[in-house]
Amino acid sequence: MKELSLSRSEICAAPLRPAEPIPAEQLFASQDKVRISFKGQVYTLSLTRNDKLILTK
Prior knowledge:
Blueprint: E1 2-4, H1 8-12, H2 24-28, E2 33-38, E3 41-47, E4 53-56
Parallel strand pairs: 1-2
Antiparallel strand pairs: 2-3, 3-4
């Protein structure tokens, strides 16, 4: 599983315009789960066989 993280300065330095969408294919690559850390918690974003996304803690 991939774990993506941004530093606080990277988040605060971002412009106030909406971010460009990240294609799911880029996030998942050749896997069906991606781990995301947010405020000290780790979440798992899963891609189902029916092409649905599920976010779990």
